[in-house]
Amino acid sequence: MQNLRSILFVVTFYAWSAFVAVLLLPPLLLAPRSWTIAVFHLWSRGIILLLKVVADIRVEVRGREFIPTTPALVAPKHQCMFDVFAQFSLLPDACFVTKKELMWIPFFGWFAKKATMIEVDRAGQATALRKLVKDAKDRFRIPRQLVIFPEGTRVEPGVPGDYKPGIAALYRELDLPVYPMATNAGVHWPRHGFQRIPGTIVFEYLEPIPAGLKRAEFMRTLQDRIETATNRLVNEDPAHIARPAPAAAT
User: Fold this and answer.
1) Helix/strand/coil for 146
2) Cα–Cα separations (whole angstroms), residue 86 to 120, 228, 249
3) Which residue of 47, 90, 106, 176 has the smallest Cβ count within 10 Å?
4) Per DSSP, which regions of 56-198 are E strands?
5) Residue 181 in 3-state DSSP?
């Protein structure tokens, strides 16, 4: 039954995404940017509904009092692609930092460009960091929430992340608070494969880190808050507890 529901969710997810993209892309290309953000909100809410109805996965949001509505940096734990999709329904005007390869994807890349997301060349090192800061300052000319995944890529639940310097550069140069976010999403939406595991995905916004800390203290605080809260969510999740232990090495 779980396999069937998982396959059905994947089919309906792509059908819903294609419907939104094909039907709404042409008028959005000529409309204001705010219309594109509104469509991302609609798309995200549709995915959350499909998860509940088709895959028996509910989405719970904790720490709503910490969800920023003014200019801020948001630093979520990254376990699966749903970490990205869900933020569109939670944040008023999300601007994502995304790797440039994603901008080449038809429809998604066109929507992302219209929404003025920030693309980054992860191989560009110092040059990429300077461009990241410059683009972020440009996006903050209007009140937005800049979302950057500190680890830069998805990691399995229970695996500590390798936190990259991009978030530290933005924190220093923009002088804004950072809102960490923990999740157990990877337990229910694995980063590989089609399986969707019934249960509850939790997104927990944590107390913001104020601007002005030294780089080392900031990175230590950020990683400790995200990893501690994420490990708690994962370890208390019945679906994670029920997973068979990995086979011992021989």
Assistant:
1) strand
2) 21, 21, 37
3) 106
4) 57-62, 72-76, 94-99, 118-120, 145-147, 178-183
5) strand
User: Which residues 6+ apart lie within 8 Å of 110 measured at CB?
Assistant: 25, 29
The token duo for 183 is 């999740």
Please give the CATH architecture assigned to the domain spanning 2-236.
Answer: 3-Layer(aba) Sandwich (3.40)
Cα dist. 215→30, 130, 165, 212, 221 in Å? 42, 17, 10, 9, 10
Pairing of strands 145-147, 118-120: unpaired
Task: For residue 68, give the 3-state DSSP assignment.
Answer: coil
How wide is the angle at C-alpha 158 spanned by C-alphas 13 and 207, nearest 5°? 85
pLDDT tens-digit profile of 147-190?
999 998 899 998 888 898 889 989 999 989 999 999 999 999 99
Cα distance between residue 89 and residue 78, in whole Å: 17
Helix (H, G, I), strand (E, B) or coil at 116: coil
pTM of structure: 0.88
Rounded distance, CA 69 to CA 91, Å?
Answer: 7
- Which of the 8 DSSP states describes residue 64? G
The two tokens of residue 80 are 């699966």
**CA separation for the pair 217, 120 (Å, rounded):** 25
**Amino acid found at 40:** F
Alpha-carbon distance of 159 to 155, in angstroms, equals 6
**Residue spans of the chain under pLDDT 70:** 106, 122-125, 242-250
> How many other β-carbons are positioned within 10 Å of the β-carbon of residue 143?
12
DSSP letter assigned to residue 247: P
Q: Which two tokens stand for residue 93?
A: 């005007």
